[in-house]
Design a protein that fits this description.
Blueprint (H helix, E strand, L loop, with lengths): L16 H44 L3 E2 L11 E5 L7 E16 L4 E12 L9 E3 L2 E2 L6 E4 L11 E2 L5 E12 L11 E10 L7 E5 L15 E14 L8 E13 L2 H21 L8 H23 L10 H28 L9 H25 L1
Parallel strand pairs: 3-11
Antiparallel strand pairs: 1-2, 2-12, 3-4, 4-9, 5-10, 6-9, 7-9, 8-9, 10-13, 12-13
Helix pairs in contact: 2-3, 2-4, 3-4, 4-5
Length: 386
C-alpha cells in the first residue's frame, strides 16, 4: 500500500515546509558566522602575540642594521648603521692620504700622515672630541694640526656661507693593526684607522662619510700594492661606559687594502728555496760511487734551508703562528731529509753489503721524480687552502 505524503494521516501532523526551510537556513548562517568569528579571533590573537615579541626588538634595533660586524676590534659590539636618530648632529667627513710608511708586520704597526676635514651644522664641535681609537706608540709622536684657529692658537672652525661649520685637520701618527699572516708571503692586509667621539653618543652626533668625496685608489705605498680605499660608518654598542647606561656611539673607519707584490715571494723566497731543493735532489742522480759529493749536497741543502727560513722569520712577529711559507719549508725539509736518508742507506748497501751500484740508479731517478712532484703538489694544495 503506498501512502501519499501530501495527505494527512493519524500518525502525523501537517508540516509547514516553508518554515522548516527558513529554520535550516538560519542554522546554516549561524554556523557559518561562528566559524568566521573563530578564525577572526584566532588571527587577532596571533597578531597580538607576534606584536608583543617583535615590536620591542624592532624598537631596540632602530639605530643598527643586521647582525654584528666581525673583524673590527672594539670594546663593545659593532653594527652597520640603521636609522640615524633625528636628534643627532650629522658630521660629514673626508680623508685625504698624504703618505703611508713604516708598515711593520712584526710590530703590528704602521705610520700615516693625512688630512681630515669635517663639516657640520649645530652647536657641537666634533673636532676637539674626535678620538682615533687604534693609535699606537710608533716611532713618530701623534700630532694633530688644525687649519683654522683663533687668535690665541686654539681650534676654531670656519663658518661657511650656508651656515655650516668647517674644520680641517692634519694628522701625523702611528696606528696599530692586527695583521693576518696565514698566507704570508702572498698575503693581503688592511690598514685601517678607526675614530669615534669621546663625548657625544649617537643620539647627539653621527659621523657620515661624504658620498661626493673622490677616493684616489692609485695611492702608492712602498713595497706594497694598493688594492683599494674604502670608508664606512658603524654603530658601536657599549654595555657601559664608566657608569653611563648602555648606549650607541657613532664610529667611522677609513681602510686601505694592500697586497704584497708577487715578485717579493718569487725572488726573495721561492727561487732561493727551489735552488737548494734542486741541488739536494740532484744528488740522487749522481753515481753511487760519488758518495762524498752526494752526502755533501744533501747535508748542505738541509743547513741552507734552515738559514733561509731564519732569514724571513725576522720579518714576522714571534707568535705569528704557521704561515704558508712555513708549510713550504716543512715540505722542503721532508724532501731533503728523504734524499739524505736514501743516500746514506744506499751507500751502506754498496760499500758494506757489496751490492751492485747500477741496481740503484733507476730507483734513485724514480725517487727524484716522485719527491719533486710531491713537493710541487703539496705547495699548490697549501696555497689553495691557506
Amino acid at each position: 500500500m503506498k501512502l501519499d505524503p501530501s495527505a494527512p494521516n493519524e500518525y502525523s501532523e501537517p508540516v509547514d515546509f516553508d518554515s522548516r526551510t527558513q529554520l535550516l537556513s538560519l542554522k546554516s548562517q549561524s554556523s557559518g558566522w561562528t566559524k568566521a568569528s573563530r578564525m577572526l579571533f584566532g588571527l587577532l590573537l596571533a597578531g597580538l602575540i607576534v606584536s608583543a615579541f617583535a615590536l620591542p626588538a624592532l624598537g631596540a634595533a632602530s639605530d643598527v642594521s643586521g647582525k654584528p660586524v666581525s673583524g673590527i676590534p672594539s670594546t663593545g659590539t659593532v653594527y652597520n648603521v640603521g636609522t640615524i636618530p633625528s636628534t643627532a648632529e650629522i658630521v660629514s667627513y673626508g680623508i685625504t692620504p698624504v703618505n703611508v710608511y713604516g708598515v711593520s708586520v712584526a710590530g703590528n704597526t704602521w705610520d700615516f700622515n693625512f688630512y681630515m676635514w669635517m663639516r657640520w651644522k649645530g652647536d657641537l664641535d666634533p673636532t676637539s672630541t674626535t678620538q682615533f681609537i687604534n693609535t699606537a706608540s710608533a716611532e713618530t709622536s701623534f700630532q694633530v694640526t688644525y687649519a683654522y684657529t683663533a687668535s690665541d692658537g686654539s681650534e676654531q672652525p670656519m663658518t661657511l656661507p650656508d651656515g655650516s661649520k668647517f674644520q680641517r685637520l692634519y694628522v701625523q701618527g702611528g696606528f696599530a693593526q692586527d695583521f693576518k699572516l696565514n698566507r704570508y708571503p702572498l698575503d693581503s692586509q688592511k690598514l685601517q684607522i678607526r675614530f669615534s667621539n669621546s663625548t657625544y653618543p649617537l643620539a647627539r652626533l653621527a659621523y657620515v662619510a661624504d658620498p661626493n668625496q673622490k677616493i684616489n685608489n692609485n695611492f702608492s705605498i712602498s713595497s706594497w700594492k694598493t688594492v683599494g680605499i674604502t670608508n664606512h660608518n658603524y654603530v658601536e654598542q657599549l654595555s657601559s661606559v664608566q657608569g653611563i647606561p648602555p648606549s650607541n656611539w657613532s664610529m667611522g673607519t677609513w681602510t686601505i687594502e694592500i697586497r704584497r707584490p708577487f715578485n717579493y715571494f718569487l725572488y726573495k723566497l721561492l727561487i732561493p728555496m727551489a735552488i737548494v731543493l734542486i741541488a739536494s735532489v740532484v744528488a740522487l742522480l749522481l753515481s753511487p760511487e760519488l758518495e762524498g759529493s752526494r752526502l755533501s749536497l744533501a747535508a748542505g741543502g738541509l743547513l741552507t734551508l734552515i738559514f733561509l727560513q731564519q732569514g724571513y722569520a725576522g720579518d714576522l712577529p714571534p707568535n705569528s703562528g704557521l704561515t704558508m711559507i712555513d708549510k713550504y719549508y716543512a715540505l722542503g725539509y721532508i724532501v731533503v731529509i728523504a734524499t739524505f736518508l736514501r743516500i746514506i742507506w744506499e751507500t751502506s748497501q754498496v760499500f758494506i753489503h757489496k751490492k751492485e751500484e747500477l741496481s740503484f740508479v733507476k730507483a734513485d731517478r724514480r725517487l727524484a721524480v716522485i719527491i719533486s712532484a710531491a713537493f710541487v703538489a703539496g705547495c699548490v694544495i697549501f696555497t689553495i687552502v691557506s
